[in-house]
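[AMINO ACID CHAIN]
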Amino acid sequence: MSKKVFYVLFGIILSSLFVFCSSEDDSPIVNQQPLEAEILLNVSYGSHAQQKYDLYLPADRKSNKTKVIVLVHGGGWTEGDKLDMDGYITLIQDNHPDHAIVNINYVLATLTSPAFPNQFLDLQSVINKLTTEKESLQIDPEFGLIGISAGAHISLMYDYVYDTTDSVKFVCDIVGPSDFTDPFYTNNPNFPILLSLLVDESAYPSNTNFAEATSPVYQVSSSSSPTLMFYGNQDPLVPLTNGQNLDIALDAEGITNDLTVYNGGHGNWDTASLLDVQLQLSTFIETHLPIQ
C-alpha cells in the first residue's frame, strides 16, 4: 500500500471516529427537574360516591423513597368524613414533609350496605390503586395506617387479615375497638343486633363467630405490623380492656407494640396527652416508615 493511499484511509477512519465521538459528546443532557408538591382531591377508587380519597404528594418525591401514610376517620362505621382527619395532615406535613399522605373516605354502613368486610376491602382498594400507580405518582408503596375509633378498627383488621403482601409497615390505633367479645359489649343486650347490622353474613363462611371474626385481637399473627395504641381510662364507647387485650395478643406473637393510657374518655384528653400522642406517633413513623 502506498503512503498516499494509507494517509487517505487513515484520514477517513479518523474523520469517522471524530464524527462518532462528536455525536456522543454533543448529545443533549436531560436534567430531571424535582417534582413539585401536588394535591389531588376526591380521587375515585371505586364506583360508589363515597369511595374517594385526598392525596398529598410532597415535592421532590421519588418512587424509591416516598412512602405513604394513610388516614382513616372514625364515626361508628356509619358516620364521619375524611375532613375529620385534616389536623393530622398538617401535623405530618410539618414533621414528615417527605411522606405522601392519603386521607380516605369509605362507604358508610347502612341497612343495605353493611360495614364488614366492605370497609376493610375499601382500604384494600385504596392501597391497591396507589400501588398500581406508583410510577406515575412517584411513590414507594410502603404504608403506615393511622386510624381513629372505627377507623382504627378498620386499619387493624386490614393489616392483620388482608395485607398479604406486607405493604403496611405500622398501624396507629387511637381508641379503636379491638375485641367485640369483651363483656363491655356482650353484656349490652343491644350489641348483638348492632353487630348483625354491621356484618355482611354472606361474605363469611357459615357458622362464623362474627364477634371474633371482626375483632382484631383474634386476628393477630406473627405477620402483624408494629402497632401503636392510645386509649382512655374512662372511655364510654371503647373500654380500656380492648387496648389491654390487644397489647397482650401482640406481645404473645412478639409484635412490636406500645400501649399508652390517658386520663379521660374517647380521645378527649388534655393538651399534654394530645401532644404526647403527636410525639409518639412521629417517633413511630421515623422508626417504622423511614425516608432513606
Notes: Residues 35-288 form a domain with the Rossmann fold fold (CATH 3.40.50.1820). The chain has two domains: 1-30, 35-288. The longest helix spans residues 3-25. The radius of gyration is 26 Å.
